[in-house]
Amino acid sequence: VTKGNADTPKGNNGHALTAILSRWHPLTREDRASLAEISAQEYRVSSGTDFIHRDDPVRDLPILQDGWAAQYRVMHDGRRFVLKLSLPGEVIDGCFPLREPAQYSAEALTDVTLLLYPSDSLFHLVNENPRIAVAFFSLETYQHSFLRNRVMALAGLNAYERLGHLCLELLTRLEILGMAENDTFNLPVKQETLGELLGMHGVHINRMFRRLGADGFIARNKKTIQVKDREGLAQLVEFRKADIVEPSAIHTPSKYS
Amino acid sequence: VTKGNADTPKGNNGHALTAILSRWHPLTREDRASLAEISAQEYRVSSGTDFIHRDDPVRDLPILQDGWAAQYRVMHDGRRFVLKLSLPGEVIDGCFPLREPAQYSAEALTDVTLLLYPSDSLFHLVNENPRIAVAFFSLETYQHSFLRNRVMALAGLNAYERLGHLCLELLTRLEILGMAENDTFNLPVKQETLGELLGMHGVHINRMFRRLGADGFIARNKKTIQVKDREGLAQLVEFRKADIVEPSAIHTPSKYS
DNA sequence: CGTCCCTTTGAGGGCCTTCAAACTGTGTGG
DNA sequence: CCACACAGTTTGAAGGCCCTCAAAGGGACG
Fold first, then answer.
1. Which residues touch B158 (CB under 8 Å, ≥6 apart)?
2. Residue in A99, A197, A249 closest to B252 by CB
3. I want to staple B161 with a disulfide (CB 3.0 to 4.6 A). Which of A149, B122, B134, B157 is the partner?
4. Which residues contact B200 (CB under 8 A, 6 or more apart)?
């Protein structure tokens, strides 16, 4: 793990955390200035290595500046469970405002560039500034909404549908991050890992991918996935935009008051 | 649904929401006074009826003063999916700070007494007061931690283990609410509903309950469940106290700074 | 051109579902 | 007090989805 200072990370002429939070709640110039005082350390992590270790204390809020990651744990019988994939540009959740040992390890699935914001400074700021607190709250609510949908998929759908659901979830999240166009995205994750995420064997992921392709829902080419029938698939797997919390849902004045 | 006014609900000589939030973040006398100005409406809902309807606008934050509830939806193929059980004393999540249509219906599993706090007033307060914002944030984090564990159970455990996990989750949540003693609790939920929660058929819930009893992990008597081997079961189903966010994890000064 | 990692394909078995029916407890009306 | 209806639990048997083990196929890299 190489380490460097990066208040202004390259390729990003601003403060990454400010950019993310301001999507979730209107921030004043002063809010932004307060946030800008909290500078991140930049880390580079190469594919396959852990950058958060389970049971280690959490001191920082990590943002994936670039690359994919997985939060996982190894269960007592040796099987691996993947809680969540983290995408380029996303905040890795479960790390704030906790100061407890990490509940899940995080592994780089590709080469990763990481921004680490010190928890203590953030915690202090959140306790002083209600707008920033609400912004974090809203971000948490957004991530929460995807987790609820994962629960729905795991409990209510079969393997075929779960994988279709995952394709739509990733497509949606990547579109929000500006990393998917034309219903197409890159999926640099091996099938065994997808299996650990969706609660099925990697071999079965393969069969279901194949069937989704044969049924015309998706097309695959190496690591690229294109959703061919987004509407049809969404209906099949119970995926709805309305189930995802968007910024407007939170700070738009109520239409019903 | 009968309706009444209840700033000071009977059997509760205080402001229920204040009591809950102050568990999650230290509140000043002024904070409590601000919260106390937001008065709740009390509703009574009889067993089996819905009190939140999917796609209806959310105007209030509901707290279950008494009784059990389930958040559920009916999927396009007619199957029911239960997202979460809500226990007496708990805030029903997914309702704040949203003003969008409800994503899940909520059904009373027993006779229920409900406290409804107007979202608009709460939203206004949260935007003014950082401590109350952090308290809500922390509460959300707490609920989030249980959801993460549900995902782990659904993706990583078989039916037998999932049901054991649920027993421990409910026991833990009820203990926190002061409604379980001696590893024993009342479970007024039919097995079919538990199946919809855990992603398995109600009939299989029965078989797994039976096996958990035969293996000495639990004892059942009508609707009462006693966990006989809490440690053993916890290890089997990967249930850890450390996976549940507690108040101290959030506002205790960092040990590592 | 060989190695390694991952994907793909095949066959057998187990977990869980599905359909069905018997059983139990509870409330209701005769 | 009993007969009955009703809801939920319990038990049985057959079948399907998914797992498990295994091996072959493909692509990237040296």
1. none
2. A99
3. B157
4. B159, B162
The separation, in Å, between residue B51 CA and nucleotide C30 C1' comes to 38
pLDDT score at A245: 84
Residues of B in contact with A94 (CB under 8 A): 144, 148
* Segment A77-87, tens digit of pLDDT: 889 999 999 99
The pTM of the full predicted model, rounded to 2 decimals, is 0.89
Q: Do A154 and B154 touch (CB under 8 A)?
A: yes
CA distances, B77 to each of A129, A157, A232, B81 (Å): 46, 11, 14, 11
Determine how many CB atoms are found less than 10 A away from the CB of residue A125: 18
What is the distance in angstroms between the Cα of B152 and the nearest Cα belonging to chain A?
7
Q: Are B144 and A98 in contact (CB under 8 A)?
A: no
Residues A81 and A19 sit within 8 Å (Cβ to Cβ): no
pLDDT of residue B17: 92
CA distance B171 to B180: 7
CA distance A245 to A230: 20
Alpha helices, DSSP H, located in chain B: 16-22, 29-36, 119-128, 130-156, 159-176, 191-198, 202-214, 230-237, 247-251
**Helix H or strand E encompassing A106:** strand A105-108
How high is the pLDDT of residue A242? 87
* H helix count then E strand count, chain A: 9, 11
CA nearest neighbour of A68 among A189, A164, A247, A166: A189
Check CB contact of B59 with chain A, cutoff 8 Å. Answer: yes
The distance (Å) linking the CA of A158 with the C1' of D16 is 12
pLDDT in tens, A23-59: 888 899 999 999 999 989 999 999 999 999 998 888 8
A143-188 residue pLDDT tens? 999 999 999 999 999 999 999 999 999 999 999 999 999 999 999 9
